[in-house]
Specification:
With 252 residues, this protein is an alpha/beta fold. It has a single domain, classed as Divalent-metal-dependent TIM barrel enzymes (TIM Barrel). Helix content is 44%, strand content 15%. It has an eight-stranded parallel barrel. Strand 5, helix 6 and strand 6 form a beta-alpha-beta unit.
Length: 252
């Protein structure tokens, strides 16, 4: 496979290190989930944990991606926007020794304001955030369910940041992912795959084989060399998803 296949750091109901140790030898990349950071002094991995993660990566040829907190409101005016920027920079700084392939983030914030005001605020915040990363392309802006595609494209047209294409979110919104992948792949640092049942982020076994094969075949055809993350949060979903992908890779 030209891409690095990975999953999340919450497969076992255990801490970050226990999950990464469990995943060594099973995946090539681990998405470190730092989705809830209320207090940067308490909720970020310690320096000792980061050192251990770096050692595991070196020993097992692992790479990492980092998912920034879900409550960021980059571009919002006043204290909310300032705190979001501070929090994002704190996460990036703490995990920088891991040399992540990407820092995945959602574009949230107050979209109820005038679109041009929202767009200007988000772009200014992302420009400031690029000062925390080694290359602006490592900031991978993710498409999320229910967020207008035009809003995402407007931001990406103005800034040289990377992309995270969440195929599961596209399926959830009823979109064919291939047209999105054709546009996004040159800037895509990460592709998220997950099944959709009663909720999203479930096993890929729930995805009709023909639909999953279309996506995987396209990534192989295009020699996509980024990270493909099976974005699930339970061991059963992870193991069954990997079985599906393994069978698909072996079957012409």
């Amino acid at each position: 496979m030209p891409f690095r296949l990975g999953t999340t750091s919450y497969i076992l109901p255990a801490d970050l290190l226990a999950n990464v140790r469990y995943l060594t030898g099973k995946v090539q990349d681990v998405e470190i989930l730092l989705l809830e950071v209320k207090d940067e002094t308490r909720d970020l991995p310690s320096l000792e944990v980061v050192e251990e993660l770096a050692a595991l990566a070196k020993e097992h040829d692992l790479s990492y991606t980092v998912h920034l907190p879900l409550d960021l409101r980059l571009g919002d005016p006043g204290e909310e926007g300032r705190r979001s920027l501070q929090k994002a920079c704190a996460v990036i700084t703490r995990t920088c020794p891991l040399d992540p392939q990407a820092y995945v983030l959602h574009l949230n914030g107050n979209m109820a304001v005038k679109p041009s005001v929202w767009l200007r605020g988000v772009c200014e915040a992302l420009q400031l955030l690029t000062g925390c990363v080694r290359a602006s392309q490592r900031l991978a802006v993710e498409n999320t369910e229910g967020v207008a595609h035009t809003a995402l494209e407007s931001v990406l047209a103005r800034l040289p940041v990377g992309r995270c294409v969440d195929v599961g979110h596209l399926w959830l919104d009823g979109h064919d992912p291939l047209p999105h992948l054709r546009v996004a792949l040159p800037r895509a640092r990460v592709i998220h795959l997950h099944g959709v049942g009663l909720r999203d982020h479930q096993s890929l076994a729930l995805v009709p084989e023909v639909e999953l094969r279309r996506v995987v075949s396209y990534l192989l055809q295009e020699d996509y060399a980024g990270v493909v993350t099976v974005e699930v949060f339970a061991e059963n979903d992870f193991l069954s998803s990997m079985e599906v992908l393994d069978r698909m890779m072996r079957k012409p």
